[in-house]
Design goal:
Blueprint lengths: L4 H15 L6 E5 L2 E5 L3 E4 L5 E4 L2 H18 L4 H32 L7 E4 L1 H5 L2 H26 L1
Antiparallel strand pairs: 1-2, 1-5, 2-3, 3-4
Length: 155
């Protein structure tokens, strides 16, 4: 299990998605004030006032972490692991799209923010990296499956 490269890719996916919980997704500047957008809320950097609170992004990120863990554990059933990894890739893309739509939609819908300017932070861009790892894991699983089938033909 540990010697397989896809296991490393799944672990890196889990680490990246877990790190997003502690990082800011965006910084919103409106006039003289600055607001931090995280997975859970849009909060004033100085006063700590919460302008928006939501759980959808945190749930999607948690779902990506759980699916990565399950796919990591399915090393004996490669066909199921491929299908689960493809589902994980779809959910990760949905999570990435949800980040940008949620940040933009929330910022434009709040009347408290006058002429808001959004600067995306490391957390939003970190959500791109697991896409690469998941894609590489799928390729590695398919390569392992091809090796097993070739060995079965030789016997």
């Amino acid at each position: 299990m540990w010697q397989r490269t896809q296991s490393l890719f799944f672990l890196l996916t889990i680490v990246c998605n877990t790190a997003i919980f502690w990082l800011n997704l965006a910084v919103v500047e409106s006039g003289d004030s600055s607001f931090d957008f995280t997975l859970y809320k849009l909060q004033s950097g100085v006063e700590g006032d919460v302008l928006y609170s939501g759980m959808m992004l945190a749930i999607l990120c948690s779902l990506c972490i759980v699916l990565s863990g399950v796919a990591f554990g399915m090393f004996k059933r490669r066909q199921v692991q491929v299908k689960l990894s493809q589902l994980l890739l779809l959910v990760q893309v949905g999570f990435l799209v949800a980040i940008f739509f949620t940040v933009d939609g929330t910022v434009t819908s709040l009347p408290q923010l006058e002429n808001p300017v959004v600067h995306y932070s490391v957390g939003a861009y970190l959500a791109l990296i697991p896409l690469v790892f998941i894609f590489l894991a799928i390729k590695a699983i398919k390569k392992d499956e091809a090796l097993v089938r070739a060995a079965d033909r030789i016997r």
